[in-house]
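Researcher: Re-running this chain for the archive, since the previous output was lost when a drive failed. Same request as before.
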Amino acid sequence: MSLLLSFGSGTFGGGDVLTNSPTIPDTFTEEVVIQSALIGFTGPNVHLQIGRSVAIPWEEIIRGLQQDSTFLHSIQPRRLEELIAEAYIREGYKDVILTPYSADRGRDVIVSATLPGIGTIKIVDQVKRYKSGNKVTADEVRALIGVLTRDQDVSKGVVTTTAEFASRIHEELKAFLPSRLELKNGKALVEWLNQLHSKESFGK
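Model: Regenerated structure tokens:
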């Protein structure tokens, strides 16, 4: 079950700050669906700041990446999850769920969309902030495949990391790539974020 946020104000989740929502229940659900930005960005519908401290602004992160491609290695794991959720929103997805930091069952960010002629798609992204030199193992990726098998309504799984994937992992899991599984390494992540920023800058 999830809570769809709209307009008004309130606080929730042990320090998570929400503005533009009419009512916030005393008991908070496992997941929150958001319809605007997470990383210090005021959108037309919802403004959400996750965590006990102010999240890093999107523009500041992009500037950091432009100065140093390893900038993401210095971001706390939870902040990286927030950044990925923000990126999906800026890519145009309307329903984005940032799951609780603990007990997320291998689902850090959940994205849903309804496509004409196709129906509803659901993407689950597992985010891994590793330092340079570390690698995501095949077993870690298989854990997400387990989520795909267990949750029949999930269309595709994505593993996003600031580092790299273990050698031969693409060969071992080729039956799932790329239709059911996407592996996004640090280089691909930086390229994705820069592309989103470039599109926004071009549209201004």
